[in-house]
Write a structure and sequence with these properties.
Two copies of one chain form a homodimer. With 335 residues, chain A is an alpha/beta fold. Chain A contains twelve helices and twelve strands. In chain A, the strands form two sheets. Chain A has a six-stranded parallel β-sheet, sandwiched between helices. The first copy, chain A, has a six-stranded mixed β-sheet with strand order 7-6-8-9-10-12, sandwiched between helices. In chain A, strand 6, helix 9 and strand 7 form a beta-alpha-beta unit. Chain A is elongated and about 90 Å long. At the A-B interface, helix 4, helix 5, strand 2, helix 6 and helix 11 of A face helix 4, helix 5, strand 2, helix 6 and helix 11 of B. The structure holds a DNA duplex (16 and 16 nucleotides).
DNA sequence: CTGTTAGCGCCTTCAA
DNA sequence: TTGAAGGCGCTAACAG
């Protein structure tokens, strides 16, 4: 029964020395006798001594844990991002607390509260799609808990954040379609609360303009990312007097929904209407008719960078003013 | 600057009472005057007092955190399970630490160590596919850290575990194929280290026997779950003098790989060869040619049950001897 | 009803 | 080079 784990006190008692000596020996403190040091370390070894992280955390007011809040682990984009975060955190001896907001601002708020109460050293967050009020996030400032946003970042852009260049991604995607001869390209953009929605539209508009094409507002649909919303938008697009011949979707999931709806309307995918989307998820490889192309947003890398940024601050290697938002380049993956 | 968070000491000082009184007031302890209680609670409110979880954890040798170790968050089966675990844990005021083994026993061992050092109250684990040695897991016993297995459980079955009835799931699936008239049904079973591989084979064998069919060993392939392994197995099956007309795959991912390989060999999916698999993942809904059917293993429910089981022990509502392994019924989802 | 005290495990002065 | 003492924030005897 290892019930009672050995403490430095225990070691001290057995060796008839003081706890502080033991503490120093264990930390390779300079001012300590070699003999005592060896003795202590030997006994510590034998007893399988392990420092009580809880006590250390308590003492240092720091518990080597970061919190991650994201919309949905079920979405591969985020599960890949988590891997990046986890790898970086683990390498720096931090552990990762995870919470899903399920795209609800209310849950997001609760998670932030919970993590704050648990005194995490910092938080990495990707916003819920409807988060339009940042109060619950700004609170963290007061408590000196650093917050790094990734992918779904707030408007304004002043904050610590890692994201990908959605604007140029959209531009790449639309240009690709234009080069394939498409003239009527629709855009399924996301909700206004996501900055990435406007960015998609910017890239879209700019690419069209460069090709000297007129913007048709009927071809731009704001969707809420739900399957129903996507289906409704698609119905509207198909009802247009002049149907689009290509659709740029907010992300792969939206694209899957859209493709499904289109198929039900007897549209031949990537023939009658071509689909292009964002995210480039692994599951695209399993589809027999994937989108023509998908904008790679490097979720794993984003996760890594966000975690590194956060830990740089937590560990005081950098201050907030040293840091500029990171915007990753996207790449168009053609299937 | 809320830099310094208020402590009960602070409250005590301001009110000129003792810390223990404050503590009691905050905990609605019976033996305390209503007036003082109100006073304390009012001031606590004003100062935005919040108990220091770290101090409480330290004091009580318990930090209200459970660790979850699973192979791969990217797999929807596991991300759904996590949701179940998270929901139960949150409801009971626990937080969740997550680690991915990426199906490596070595990483699994490291995560167990890390979690143990961080003094989690308990662990929920789904084994890496190659874990064939349980030493790193048995260690937890000595430290009195309860461990609940889910889905990928160890051989022997004595342990605390939640899993689904793979044997009967396989039987259902094979029976379904037999009723569709298939006579040559192949099985892509997983590695021997997973108990679920043998269980699949048992169900498979039993269903065939019930239909008075002979077992053809050539039709059973052990695969390592990698895309390459699956592809190789499929090649072998296609090279048989008498090809199978249906294949039961270890899980949906294996099934996707198999379908891809088959398609490259010009097999018409679900016509020349029918596919059936395990897991019933959400992404199946996006495939235009999904497997004919998939055995639903209720990952979310498994996660919930595993977390409940663990917390029952952690909170001492039950002892280990009270608990029997849970085996969930599967259902065949027909597409 | 309330205050005093001790202690959780560790680190960090301050003294010796 | 070592020891003694104090304290992190909180809880829980034990006394009044």
């Amino acid at each position: 029964m290892d019930q009672k784990l050995p403490t430095i006190k225990e070691i001290a008692k057995r060796l008839n020395i003081s706890v502080s000596t033991v503490s120093r020996a264990l930390h390779n403190h300079p001012r300590i006798g070699l003999r005592t040091k060896m003795q202590v370390q030997k006994l510590a070894e034998e007893l399988h001594y392990e420092p009580n992280t809880l006590a250390i955390s308590f003492k240092q007011k720091k518990w080597f844990t970061i919190g991650v809040i994201l919309p949905e682990l079920n979405e591969q984009f985020f599960s890949q991002a988590i891997s990046g975060i986890e790898d970086v955190a683990t390498a720096q001896n931090y552990t990762v607390l995870i919470g899903q907001s399920h795209d609800s601002m209310e849950r997001e708020r609760m998670l932030v509260e919970a993590f704050r109460k648990h005194r995490v050293d910092g938080i990495v967050l990707s916003m819920a799609k409807n988060t339009d009020d940042y109060q619950h996030l700004e609170v963290l400032d007061k408590y000196n808990i650093p917050l790094v946003y990734f992918d779904r970042i707030p408007k304004g852009g002043q904050a610590l954040s890692v994201s990908s260049n959605i604007r140029s991604g959209a531009e790449q995607a639309v240009r690709y379609l234009l080069e394939k001869g498409h003239k009527r390209i629709a855009l399924l953009k996301g909700p206004d609360s996501l900055i990435a929605s406007a960015q998609r539209q910017e890239g879209y508009t700019s690419a069209l303009k460069q090709h000297g094409l007129q913007l048709d507002p009927d071809l731009i649909k704001e969707i809420d990312l739900s399957p129903e919303g996507t289906r409704a938008a698609l119905t509207q697009l198909l009802a247009l007097p002049q149907r689009p011949t290509a659709i740029l979707c907010f992300n792969d999931y939206v694209c899957f929904d859209a493709i499904q709806a289109a198929r039900q309307a007897k549209i031949r995918i990537n023939k009658d209407i071509s689909f292009v989307s964002f995210a480039n998820l692994p599951i695209c490889n399993f589809l027999d008719v994937p989108p023509l192309a998908s904008v790679e947003q490097h979720p794993y890398r984003q996760g890594q960078l966000a975690a590194e940024m956060l830990l740089d601050i937590v560990e005081k290697r950098k201050t907030i003013t040293d840091i500029k938002p990171v915007i990753l380049d996207t790449e168009l993956r053609i299937f």
